Structure formats: structure tokens, C-alpha cells
Amino acid sequence: MREHEVPTHVQAEDKALLWFTFPQIVAVVATCAMAYGVYRYFPFGPSGLKLGLAILLGIVGIAMTAGRVGGRGLPLVCADLLKFKLGARRYAGSPSELAVSEPPPQPAARPDPLRLLAKKAAYGMGKAMKTARRKDRAPFRPHGWFGKRRRARGGDQAKRNVREARTRKPWYRLLAVAGLLGLSLLAMPSSASADDPDDNPYGDAWRLEEIYFVPPDPVSGRRIYVEKLAVTGNTAAVTLRAAQELGLKGRVYGGRKGRTLKMGVNSTFNAGQARTYNLTLNGPSPSFTFSWLDALGFAGATSLKRHQIPHPLPSADGDICDLEVTSLEWTPGQIQGVIASDCITNTRHEEDLRVYGGHFSQSVPALLDATVTVVAGTVAVAWGGHSTTAPLVPGGETAFTLAVANDRAVSELEIAADLTATLTVPRPPMLQTVHHPARTDVYTRRVTCTCGESSTVKTVRIYVHHPEHVRATERQRADVTRTRTESVLLPPGLGLGADAPYQALRVPPPQPPPPKAEQSPVGDSGWWNWLWPGD
Q1: What is the mean pLDDT of residues 71-79?
Q2: pLDDT at residue 532 in the model
Q3: Average pLDDT of the chain to the nearest whole number
Q4: For 184, left (φ over 0), alpha (ψ -120 to 50), or beta?
Q5: How far is residue 415's CA from residue 266's CA, in Å, rounded to a whole number?
Q6: Nearest to 247 by CA among 269, 263, 228
């Protein structure tokens, strides 16, 4: 289950159920109970009329509780309209038109609009009761609407009088019920007197979501600064510095969708103090949230989101070397990182190899085993318009330092490597061919022939014919040196965020308390004037 905390010190009301606050829930329950009472105990009319009145009353009550006009509650809007209608007016002309030779008469004090409305309702109810008594009608008895009615006294004549009173249309009762409903709607917990717009020091920003208290003046300035963000594997080291004495709560979220709470930290800071936290990185999109409550009574929060945390660290596979970023660190003014490389020692080299030479020549594509003797290259790093290069350490760790502006920014980190490998390729022996044309060789031999006792010596010629042919001889070849180049680009999209430089919070001096209001008596200030103000 995801943890969700609602602080009690921020300038917002708690939502107890859905989007309703506690006063609104009480007002809605009271409205529903009143609507049910009208439907159940209304004195006359069919059930359809009672149901319609109950539904109308419920809709009006809920609208007055939860409805808003321009971000303000309907009770406040109605109170403003009533105050404008019944209250005093403000002269809109020029001051010169008000110049008179004698001081103007003091206007009579007018009562509060709600008190005036209650007074008028009470006057109407009293007048209706007097009219009913004058016409020999039954007196206004609300207890007769609920529960068991009182028994009539006086025998049959009293019963007939009660029966006639029931058959009459008690319009005064409807008037009394309407007055009570109006007073109850005006007295709901969610209603309050509207303030003058000129007296609101926060402008229209606080009118978007109406609240029923005046928050203190905020102290502008940041409380928390991120001074270091180092990522190594699945761990992030975050250094925070506080500009004001405060209490901090940190939350680490991760998981498959990045919404699961994985870790939490709680600590306190003094002004200018720095702390380092080793936070777990989990899932493809981790995030950190730090909420604070300072010594001035104000609260706030800051967060590091997915595009600000370089996780997961990138890696890329190449033909010569495989590159992987093992650590990445941001501090004010620079970015440092370590890139590990794993380079090959043996490979295969493809080339056109001559297998015959001389009179007959032929080459075939061959894949030869080669040995990597030297690997060299450079690593280029770029972030937010700043770039640097570092020589590659083959088979080891290459460290780089990139100087950046000491300012708040979020950019993608680009890392690319240009590699060159020197190969030693041994080649097999080659057959050297020699062409021999056709020829005839003549050989002379002396032969002695004996016939009886006589012998003779003769010269004999022998002809040997050699046809045309080609002869091949094997010849050894020396090893050759070849070079191979490639560019390895690490996957893009590695975001890294930099925070603004640290600045101490300047707390303004406390404002002096407002002077106490002094009351000066005007005319007769007896205690009865508070109970019965003049019209």
C-alpha cells in the first residue's frame, strides 16, 4: 500500500471524503436530514409534492455547500450579494462634489444583514400568528407536526373546531417553514462573511480555492539545495544542504511503474548543514521526494524525477571494445564519470588473399585469424553545450571530468568513443607458378655394332619431346599489419539534472504587531443599544 501523508501545517483544508471538507460533510448531512424531515412530516399535500420539495431542498442545500462561482463558495457569494443589497453604499464620484459648507449628518447605524433578515422573518411569523388568532384559527403549534398530537379539550365542540382547523389551508405554516429553512441555510457551517477584495493581500490566487482562514505571509527563498548526485550501479548518493533550520522527510519510489515506495529517511538540519544519503534505485523510472518543515512554520517539497537521475547507466557493445559507464557524479560546476572498457585480444580479419602467383595468379576472399596488438582511442562527452575528451584506457577504467556552468539545468549526457586497433595477420604460403613452353631435346649416342668378326661404330640420335606445362613452387610469406577503426555511441536519453548554487535564506525581520483599537463612546452607549440597535 502506498504511503500518503497530508501535512496539517499547509494553507489548505483537509479533504475528509472525496472533495468535501469536514464542515461541508456536516452541512450535507444536515441538509439531507432536513429534506427527509420535510418529506416525512410536511403538514399537507400529496406525497409527490412532499418528495419534490424534499428533492429541491436537498439540491439547493448541496449546491450551497459544494457549489462554487469563480472559485468561491455559494454561501460566500450570497453573503456578498446580501451585504451589497442591504449594506451601505460607497460614493463613486469625485471628492470635490462632496465639499459642503456644513458637516454632513451622521448616518444611522444599520444592523448586520443576517440580523436584519432574522428580524424581518420573526416579524412576519408574529404577524401571521396574530392574523390566525384573529380569524379563530388554531394557533401555531409546531409540536403538532411531529409525533402524537395533543388531545383537544371541551368535548365534541372542541373536536369539531380541531377538525375544521385541519381542513383549512395553513399558509402561515408554509411561511414559517420557509423562514426556518432560509435561516438554516444561512447558518450552515460552511457559510461565512465575505471579505472585501481590496483587503485580500494575496490577490486572486487564494480565490481559486476558497479557504476560511488568513495564512501568514510566506518567506520567499529556497530551503533545500542538491549539492551532489552520484550514481553507481543501483545506488544513488544525494547530498542535500539546508538554507534554514528544518525537518526533512525523504521518500524513494520505484518499481515497475515508479509508484511503489521503496525507502524513507527522516532527519533534521541546521542552517547551512549538509547531509549525504545513499538511496536505492529500483525499476526503470525511480524518483526521490524530499518534503520539509522549517523553523518558520512553512512547508514545501522538492523532487528528483526520472529525467534528472542518470539511471540505468548506459553500456554499448563494439567490435573492438565494449564500453560501460560504471559511475556518474554531478557536483556544482563539473560532471565526473568512469567508463570501463573490455577490449578484444584476438579477432578475425577478412581480405582478398592471393593463393597463386607468377604465370597464373588467383585471389580468393579469406577470413584469417589476427592478433590485436594495440588499441587506442578517445572518449568524447557532451552535456548542455559543454564538451570534453579523454584518452581511452583499453581494458581498464577511463575517468573524465566535464566543466559545466554552475546553474540549474537538465540535459542529456552524450558519450561516444572513437577506437583504433592494430592487427597482426599471419598469411599462409603462396604457390609461385612458372610457365614452360613445348620443346624437343636431341641426344647423340655412339653405338658399336658387331657382325661376325667385324664391328662398326655408328652415331645414333635420340629425340625427346617435352610438351608445354606450368610448374608451381611453394613460397613462404611474412605477416602483415592491418588497422581497424570504429565509433561506439552509448545509447542516448541519459538525463542528468543540475541544481542551482547554494544561497543562504534571508529571513525578513518580524513585523511589529498592529496597534490596539481604541473605542471612543459616541452618544448613548448603554448595554441595551447592543441588543436593540436602531434602524
Answers
A1: 80
A2: 47
A3: 78
A4: alpha
A5: 36
A6: 269
Integer Cα distance of 98 and 94 in angstroms = 7
Q: Give the strand pairing for 386-391 and 454-466.
A: unpaired
What b-and-e string marks burial along 298-332, b requiring 16 or more CB atoms within 10 Å of the CB?
bbbebebbebbbbbbbbebebebbebbbebbbbeb
User: Which 3 state secondary structure label does DSSP give 42?
Assistant: coil
For residue 469, which of 381, 362, 359 has the smallest C-alpha distance? 359
The pLDDT value recorded for residue 196 is 42
Q: Which residues does residue 413 pair with via DSSP β-bridges, in sequence order?
A: 383, 494
Tell me what percent of the residues of the chain surpass a pLDDT of 70: 70
Burial class from Cβ neighbours inside 10 Å (0-12, 13-18, 19+) for residue 451 reads exposed
Q: What is the pTM of this model?
A: 0.54
Can you tell me the distance from the alpha carbon of 35 to that of 42, in angstroms, rounded to the nearest whole number? 10
What cell was used for 472? Answer: 608451381
Nearest partner of 252 among 286, 291, 301, 302, judged by Cα: 286
Instruction: Specify whether the CB–CB gap between 116 and 124 falls below 8 A.
Output: no
Cα–Cα distance for residue pair 499/489, rounded to 1 Å: 27
Q: Which residues contact 347 (CB under 8 A, 6 or more apart)?
A: 319, 370, 372, 421, 423, 484
Q: Which of 47-51, 91-95, 409-413, 438-442 has the lowest mean pLDDT?
A: 91-95
Q: Which residue has the higher pLDDT, 101 or 482?
A: 482
In 406-438, DSSP assigns E strands to 409-425, 430-436
Contacts (Cβ under 8 Å, ≥6 apart) of 23:
189, 190, 212
CA dist 319 and 261 (Å) reads 41
174-192 per-residue burial string, b: 16 or more CB within 10 A, e: under 16: bebbebebeeebbebbbbe
In the DSSP assignment, the letter for residue 139 is P
The answer to whether the beta carbons of residues 423 and 367 sit under 8 Å apart is no
| Single-letter amino acid, residue 415 | I
Q: Which amino acid is at 355?
A: V
Concatenating the DSSP letter of every residue in 286-300 gives -EEEEEEEETTS-EE
Q: Which three cell numbers stand for residue 275?
A: 547531509
What is the Cα–Cα distance from 360 to 401, expressed in whole angstroms? 59
Report the phi/psi class of residue 263: left, alpha or beta, with left for phi > 0 and alpha for psi in -120 to 50. Answer: beta
Sequence-distant (6+) residues with CB within 8 A of 387 are 380, 381, 402
Q: How many CB atoms lie within 10 A of CB 246?
A: 24
Residue partners of 94: CB distance under 8 A and separation at least 6: none
